[in-house]
Design a protein that fits this description.
Belongs to the creatininase superfamily. The protein is mostly helical and about 230 residues long. The chain is built from 8 helices and 3 strands, in the order αβααβαβαααα. Strands 1-2-3 form a 3-stranded parallel sheet, with helices on both faces. Helix 2 crosses helix 8, helix 3 packs across helix 4 and helix 5 packs antiparallel against helix 8. It is globular, with a radius of gyration of 18 Å.
């Protein structure tokens, strides 16, 4: 259930008998021909669809993340790592204050993974709480579905091209882009990243048939729901 469709009394009533919630994390950054909000749209949607049958509250997606390398692409907004970790500290601590003790973080942006490493520090100070950090797109079952469809898949490629990340009137290029040299890419400043990547796709086709994407999405939702139901340590 979307928290935006609840009031505080409804949350309080939920917490009388349950302590699970979902916090989606996204980003606002270039995604070639796709929406700048692609990571946020996908993280929030997979969280909502996974939680819906269980009635678990899903908080609004955090739409900003760590993405300094794409700052040469207009519309990209990046937080410093220190800022991002401070925001995560405040959000998780707020959830803890209210009584949430099983928190599923559904992350949609690879650049946010410093938060995954930092999470151990927070858990060391909140030993009564369980937090799962779920990178939905490369979790085992979902990534297997991606790879069985097309092994050449990466940022801003077909694997993020769903009906809800496409833009009206914007067509996806037909070519299959060779994989970028990631070792070289990681050494470059933002202007160099844009020169190397051009449109922003890292590798592969820009789009695949909707039936391929529906199969992958079904797996992603099911895998996320399994974590909500069964993924909690004692």
């Amino acid at each position: 259930m979307r928290v935006q469709d609840m009031n505080w009394e409804m949350v309080e009533a939920w917490l009388r008998h349950e302590n699970r919630c979902v916090l989606p994390l996204g980003c606002t950054e270039q995604h070639a021909t796709l929406s700048l909000a692609t990571d946020s749209l996908l993280a929030e949607r997979v969280a909502l669809e996974a939680a819906a049958p269980l009635g678990v509250p899903v908080f609004p997606v955090l739409p900003y993340g760590i993405t300094p390398s794409f700052m040469a692409y207009p519309g990209t907004l990046s937080l410093r790592t220190s800022t991002y970790l401070a925001v995560l500290e405040d959000l998780l601590s707020s959830l803890h204050t209210h009584g949430f003790r099983r928190i599923l973080v559904v992350n949609g942006h690879g650049g946010n993974v410093p938060g995954q490493g930092w999470l151990g520090e927070w858990l060391a100070r909140h030993s009564d709480t369980r937090v799962q950090w779920h990178n939905w797109w490369n979790a085992p079952r979902t990534w297997a579905a991606v790879q069985s469809t097309d092994e050449l898949a990466s940022h801003a490629s077909w694997m993020e091209n769903f009906p809800w990340t496409r833009l009206e009137g914007v067509s996806a290029p037909a070519g299959r882009k060779p994989a970028v040299d990631l070792g070289r890419l990681r050494q470059l400043p933002p202007a160099g990243v844009r020169t190397l990547l051009e449109d922003g796709n890292f590798a592969g086709l820009h789009a695949r048939p909707d039936e391929d994407m529906a199969r992958i999405w079904t797996e992603a939702v099911a895998e996320t729901r399994t974590l909500l139901e069964e993924g909690w340590a004692p």
